[in-house]
Amino acid sequence: DSGVTQTPKHLITATGQRVTLRCSPRSGDLSVYWYQQSLDQGLQFLIQYYNGEERAKGNILERFSAQQFPDLHSELNLSSLELGDSALYFCASSPSPPRPEAFFGQGTRLTVV
Amino acid sequence: AQSVTQLGSHVSVSEGALVLLRCNYSSSVPPYLFWYVQYPNQGLQLLLKYTTGATLVKGINGFEAEFKKSETSFHLTKPSAHMSDAAEYFCAVRKSNTGNQFYFGTGTSLTVIP
What pLDDT sits at residue B28? Predict the structure, then answer.
């Protein structure tokens, strides 16, 4: 158990809908990362938050947004869903320096039908 | 920009044989390096990491990796493969431990043949 909790584990929704994925980082970790994993794209970095502030942005679509709340949990919002958004979405958290590693949650499997 | 290259998207070894998974990175400064393992329908689990100091790093499940700055490589090895080692392995790099993102390779799927 990495200590990173993601809910829900599975999500099935229709095209055009909006969903919210939730992540609770390890206790004390200030950084949260979101990744998308699909068969054809591999592991794609979406966005990073550090203590509530956006720190880095990757290949995140405009239809997607995220935020990190004062209690450090994070949410990834996906809207106007398309079939191609079906993927595993991972959240990871990272301890404060000097530890550089990230710990991953079990992921949310999103299926868009 | 940093990048990570994993040579061989699929590697097959016999049970008991040496496992060698290759990873090369591009970075203007010595980075932090990681290997993660992903079992089916699970998240990524940290196998080992290199930060500073000793270039041969030992991880969990008998895996180890060697940081070779001159070759910009961080190959993962295990002397004797077990069936339970079958999984996807990802190499990753991070420039610093102060907020920079992680860059992942495309992954290597390891098959262990009985």
Answer: 66
